[in-house]
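Suppose you are handed a protein chain with no further information: no name, no annotation, nothing but its sequence. What can you learn? This example shows the usual starting point.
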Amino acid sequence: CPLGVIGVVFEARPDVLPQISSLCLKSGNAVILKGGREAANINRALYNVIREAADKVGIPRGWIQLLEAREEILELLKQEDLVDLIVPRGSNEFVRFVQENTRIPVLGHSSGVCHIYVDKAADLAKAVEVCFDAKVQYPAVCNAVECILVHKDVAQTFLPKLAERFVKVGVEMRCCPRAKEVLRGFDVKEATEEDWGREYLDLKVAIRVVDSLDEAIDYINRYGSKHTDSIITEDKLAALRFLTGVDSSTVIHNASTRFSDGYRFGLGAEVGISTSKIHARGPVGLEGLVTYKYILLGSGQIVSTYIGADAKKFKHRRLDKVWSPEEWIAVK
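A reasonable first move is to predict its three-dimensional structure. Written in structure tokens, the prediction is:
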């Protein structure tokens, strides 16, 4: 069954409006939308098109509402008795503002600090391509890689190859002392403590040499945002340790972090990425906008007949058929 009323607060991303509106309609939820003022005219136009189309087919008008005044954001966040879920879409600061100013459950993530760990058993040519794609293909999104961890046994060979590719497109590399020593022939910066766990959303990347797989896992669990993290290795046992040991909503073996996306996962449009373990996690589509309701159909049964010496027994058989309200009503 649907969650109820969903409040969606987003910055200058008008494409969010039709995506989330369609998901809310399909899942049976009402939606209150508040977009950024930078795209106010586009938001209004899209909202009017959706509402007019819904009116033509008899969908109750109140299912979708558009807020336009800035002060309405705080008012929306106070409606814990009326709104069942808040979905913020925007910058780290914006999402944190929403999380800190409401008692309504919030679905989403405040940052996308994604990592790639290049293991000692990695195919280095593959690792270069994956790291390059994850940083350069679209750096300003939450599933772009922000930190690359490299096992010490392959750092001398791997890092210069990766740096050559990064330099050609202007990627700024912020390195730990060990990585900086390996790349002493390149124009790199020494990383500070602020670079570990930082979301750049730009052609910048932190690089760190680690001694072991366990150190990489511990580092990611400490500095990561539980969004998406990847391991590059030909050792399946090492991959399995990483995939089960890293506490993120999406973990990847031998592929770019940029695949962490509802459409690319085959889920269709998405509300966003959730790094929470409750109620939905990872790319959130239709299934993340519904919950369970248990419907028990009886004919006068009472619990006391199932207790005691002559108690009836529960059968607990699997129900393979999906219950249909229409079919149930039709049965005499």
